[in-house]
Amino acid sequence: MNRSSRSLSETIRAVGPLWLAVMSSALLAAAAGIRGLPGLLLITIGVGTAVAVFARLRNRQTSQTVVAHDATGGNLQVLLRMIDRRTAIRMFGMSALFIGPMGGVPRALELLAGQQVPEETQSPFSRIRQWAMIIDLRYCDGCQSVGSPPRCTAACVEGHLLPEPMQWIEVFEDELEGEGTRFIPIPCQHCQNPPCVNVCPVGATFSTPEGLVLIDQERCIGCRICMAACPYDRRFFNWGEPPVPPEAHLAKYNLEAQVPALKGTVMKCDFCPDMVRAGTLPYCIQACPNQAIYYGDLEEDIATNGRQLVSMAAFSAEHNAFILKEELGTQPRVFYIPGHGEAVGRVPSRTGRLPTVWPWTRTAPGGDVWSR
Amino acid sequence: MESVNDWQARLEDTTLDPARKTTRNYYAFLFFLLAVTGWGVYAYSLQVRRGLVVTGMSDRISWGLYITMFVFFIGISHAGTLISAILRVSHAGWRTPVTRMAEFITAVALITGAFFVIVDLGRPDRLINVLVFGRWQSPIVWDVLAVTTYLTASVVYLYLPMVPDLAFFRDRQAPWVSRPKHMLYRILAINWRGTSDQKRHLRRAISIMMILIIPIAVSVHTVVSWIFAMTLREAWNSTIFGFFFVAGAIFSGIATLIVVMAILRRVYHLEEYITPRHFLYLGYLMAAMGGVMIYANLSEYITAGFKFEEGTEFLFRQLFIDEFAPYFWFYFIGGLMTPVVFMFIRRLRTIGGIVTAAVFVDLGMWVERYFIVVTGLRAPLLPYEPVNYAPTWVEWSITAGGFAFFALLITLFVKAFPIMAVWEMTEERREEFEEMVEYEHEFDGEEILASGVPDSAPEPETGGPP
After folding, report:
1. A172 touches B383 (CB < 8 A)
2. Crossing angle for the helix pair B65-76 and B351-378, nearest 10 degrees?
3. Which of the two ends of chain A, N or C, has the fewest CB atoms closer than 10 A to its terminal CB?
4. Of B53, B228, B376, the CB nearest to A370
């Protein structure tokens, strides 16, 4: 054996117990649910001390054995051999003394450092809602039967005070295989792998724990890379000074309602979490004359169109629900049930819908109008 | 034969001339550039007041001339890196007289390009958010990092080799002629005395910078292309984009250098130093990059066109046949083929021919940046009619202002700073001269020795371009 390998084995022998102590303490810390450096450090010291003390005690009694093993197996194995059942129990018991109060350590350190400890906002046992939408295309006829522009869009325009030409939920007319068309209302898809969030340079658009993609227009710099990135064409820019009705000027800007709109920033459908929290459904769902749109919570597996309750999973599966541009991997939260309005008596060959209008803008003085 | 000292004195005079004499034409040109830049500033102030509604952009084509200008100017900023760093690394001696101009184009083009990102913002007042809330995951932040790094590096790389020349300006411009000017040179020359110690440090600094700046330059245009390639758009969904943009950047950088070189040569009578050889070599480089660009285009469109996935038809139709066909074919034939063809034909391989080709390359590359931006956005994502984009007078004015600003900075630069690397050129000349003298001595000696057998006398090598 040459010198370098000898010194290597010596190093391993020296580091062995320490390594054992760190690893076991990390394991214990993880088991006790302790995060962060201070807890880990204290546990390491505790377990390390325990191991060292017992190793020393053992060493004194069986120094002969130690020497014998040292030649063959190194300190680590010696140490493992030294720890009999009783010693192990004692060691773990002693470690537990350290681990017990660990949970309070980070908090205590924060308090010592004078930091404000935020109140727990979510208990680990409470549900976090996972908002989603199911749009039943069998019931959507582009509001042909009621003879008006799509009501969902109109209600959204009125409710969110959208400048012309924004249609956060827009009813597109799509060619079917064979002949004829179908109508498909498309709001923001609230992707779980949102391309717009990924590219935003300032984090002005972000995902919420409830699975929504929102925009903070007070942070947006208007670079419009999110508009280039969105594969669903669902982002809208305030190219000019948006019209704002006098009463909206009184409102404090709220990113869940996006009122009042701000020049030079991006807007889009926000899924109305504020309305749902208040116990009502979003504007578009309330306004749909055929109850084609369901809103619900994937976590609780329940959705409603205002008339009936369905299980999201069962309802989607039974009616072959699909998502838009699945191949892009954006994982949308809007599910579609295939159809072309047949449930409300529409035939595919009956094409065309009335164009959306922005009547509320007449009451708001000023404001620019641009084209999509 | 003319001594090196005489030669140096003449070179120094030529370099000092722009700073000493200012013609009426210069003021007229300066005024013109200031007027155009001012008009651009006015148009921008209007845009700030009224919002981007004054432009032709809309939700469905949300980027236009401004982003085109950004990509184009960041592109031509590669002039300096290529000529200066790559040729310095490869010890191409002929580059010396043109390096200063190339490096200056780099710095100026970067400043101009970076301005256009700000011009494109909907909320320029919140620019600081990029620093406060910047997310490293965003391609825009990669760009901010890359462009600012490159600007810093290229300003340093412009400044370092200029220090001895600034000292020369300091020494040659008497303080009583213009006190502020003298002060400026004295500060910028950082006490350069030309000692061997200083020279050693300078050489070391330059060689560190020239190696450092090459990967920085490549990274810059790569991340510029990633602004597009990182989005889910069919037209931009390409792995070749980074390389393609870098190649295009070097290509248009060389072209811009040729044009600027030709203008300064004519205006400031630099014919002795910037010779047809420089145009020829740069022309060859430009043609080679043209070949690379043709290859990159073929590779890009053939792989897409063979498979012909959904959406490709729309893109190909608008690019090759319909709306953008004139732009594309002008770019492909005018911008890419011209330099290659011109360099093959002996009669067109003149300064005039090469400058013409360079102008075509610049125009072609500008048009390419334009149609890459606009065609990619124009392809409809959902069942709606594709919209069209027509820049408004505000956009054109700001664009013109941008070009004028670029020219303005160059015009001001040549007035204040040495446009050629006098010390490097002199050193090289001195080395050449010494070699020549040595050679002549050897030659004389051999002739005496070999006087008995005249046939064996070595023939003197004939110089000239290969």
Report:
1. yes
2. 140
3. N
4. B53
Query: Chain B: nearest CA to A145, how far in angstroms?
Result: 22
| Residue with token string 């009335």 | A354
Q: Which domains does chain B have, with CATH numbers?
A: 4-439 (1.20.1630.10)
Is a pLDDT exceeding 90 seen at residue B39?
yes
Q: Are B153 and B213 in contact (CB under 8 A)?
A: yes
Q: Which of B122, B137, B381 sits opposite A231 (nearest CB)?
A: B381
Report yes or no on A371 lying in a domain: no
Q: Does A217 touch chain B (CB under 8 A)?
A: no
Q: Which helix (H) or strand (E) holds A297?
A: strand A293-297
Distance of residue B168 Cα from the nearest chain A Cα, in angstroms = 46
Identify the closest residue of chain B to A264 by CA–CA distance.
Answer: B122
CATH code of A213's domain: 3.30.70.20
Cα-only R_g, chain B: 25
Determine the Cα–Cα distance for residues A30 and B397; give it in Å rounded to an integer. Answer: 63
- Closest by CA to B282, choosing from B258, B261, B260, B265, is B258
**Separation CA B280–CA A301 (nearest Å):** 73
Average pLDDT over residues B166-182: 81
| Contact B379/A at CB under 8 A | no
Mapping DSSP to helix (H, G, I), strand (E, B) and coil, where does residue A213 land? strand
Give the nearest partner residue to A203 out of B135, B144, B380, using CB atoms: B135
Whether A261 is covered by a domain: the verdict is yes
Average confidence (pLDDT) over B331-347: 94
Question: Do A146 and A289 form a contact (C-beta atoms < 8 A)?
Answer: yes
- Is A106 in the same domain as A177? no
Over residues A141-171, the pLDDT tens digits come to 999 999 999 999 999 999 999 998 999 999 9
A222: left (phi over 0), alpha (psi -120 to 50) or beta: left
Minimal Cα–Cα distance from A279 to chain B, Å? 33
Q: Give A228's contacts in chain B (Cβ within 8 Å).
A: 62-63, 228, 231, 233, 376-377
Domain that holds residue A193: 131-363
Predicted confidence at residue A68, as pLDDT, reads 45
In the predicted model, residues of chain A with pLDDT beneath 50 are 1-3, 62-73, 117-118, 120-121
Same domain? For A268 and A324 the reply is yes
User: In whole angstroms, what is the distance from residue B72 CA to residue B62 CA?
Assistant: 18
| Rounded CA separation B15/B161 (Å) | 15
What region, left, alpha or beta, does residue B5 occupy, with left being phi > 0 and alpha being psi -120 to 50 degrees?
alpha
Instruction: Show which of A78, A112, A146 is a domain's final residue.
Output: A112
A137 touches A292 (CB < 8 A): yes
Residue B122 has its nearest CB partner, among A201, A264, A368, at A264
Answer yes or no: do A295 and A159 share one domain.
Answer: yes
Q: Looking at the structure, do residues A107 and A158 belong to the same domain, yes or no?
A: no
On whether both A196 and A310 belong to a single domain, the answer is: yes
Across the interface, whether the CB atoms of B58 and A371 are under 8 A apart is answered: yes
State how many domains chain A has: 2
Same structural domain, A337 and A232: yes
**In chain B, which residue's Cα lies nearest the Cα of A199?**
B138
- B419: closest CA among B210, B193, B176, B257? B257
Residues A78 and A172 in one domain: no
With respect to residue A124, please indicate whether it lies within any of the assigned structural domains.
Answer: no
* A156/A194 same-domain check: yes
Confirm whether A159 is domain-assigned: yes
Distance in angstroms (rounded) separating the CA atoms of residues A57 and A75? 15
Please give the pLDDT value at position A248: 78
Q: Which of B39, B102, B114 is nearest to B69 (CA)?
A: B114
How many Cβ pairs closer than 8 A exist between chain A and B?
138
CB A102, CB A34: distance < 8 Å: yes
| Residue B38 CA neighbour count, 13 Å, CB half | 6
